């Protein structure tokens, strides 16, 4: 697998609905090799989640405006 600088970087992201999440990195499904983003909610029970990379990085149209589903707030170095 090659390193892709366009992949979500570890850091804090804001979901378009407002909540914040910590992205840990990109993993791959063991059977299909589909890329998924691994992230943790920074609220409630701080659940650990995965979402297909294509869905995580997509741009949505809300009230006629384009907005990213997740926007980077602070990258971890």
UniProtKB/TrEMBL annotation:
Pfam families found in the cross-reference section: DUF1653
Domain of life: Bacteria
DUF1653 domain span: 11-71
InterPro entries (alphabetical): DUF1653-like_dom, DUF1653-like_dom_sf
Protein name, UniProt field: DUF1653 domain-containing protein
